[in-house]
Amino acid sequence: GSVMVEIFSKFDSWIKVSAIVILVAKLIDIIYIHKFNFFIESTVGKELVKSLNTNMLISTILVVAIAATSLHIAFRLSPAILESYEADSAQFPKLHKQSEVLHRVNFLLGIGLLFSFVVY
User: Fold this and answer.
1) Angle, nearest 10°, between helix axes 2-35 and 46-72?
2) Residue 78 burial (CB < 10 Å; 0-12/13-18/19+)?
3) What is the distance, to the nearest Å, from the Cα of residue 90 to the centroid of all Cα atoms in its chain?
């Protein structure tokens, strides 16, 4: 248990940094896509731009969901898990299960994000 506490405390730091970097990168992506929409439309046509905009919306929703879930885990859930573990509280199994479920949700959202880049 004590080894896992140390591993997850370092893992939480990576989660915090990664989630913030992902959100900033997505914001930059949105800004540049909208800036060059006219150029893209004039070179590849309106249908492809419409498809790209749909994919952008879906990927933005997924990125925000992943970042929000990750930040919730890192800032709220992990400290509560650590506190309940150290206090040998009956809440620990419930919090641990919640963490497992949220990590699985993030995994599935990540898979969805990979497939959101497929242009029809």
Assistant:
1) 150
2) buried
3) 29
Give which of 114, 58, 113 is closest to 50, Cα–Cα. Answer: 58
- Tell me if 65 sits within 8 A of 19, measured CB to CB: no
Q: Helix 92-115 to helix 78-86 angle, to the nearest 10 degrees?
A: 160
CA 74 to chain centre: 12
CA distance 29 to 63: 12
Cα 54 to the chain's mean position, in Å?
19
CA distance 31 to 91: 43
Q: How far apart are CA 73 and CA 89, in angstroms?
A: 19
Residue with tokens 């990125």: 63
Which residue type is seen at 86?
E
pLDDT computed for residue 87 by the predictor: 87
pTM of this prediction?
A: 0.76
Q: What is the mean pLDDT of residues 31-51?
A: 66
Question: pLDDT at residue 44 above 80?
Answer: no
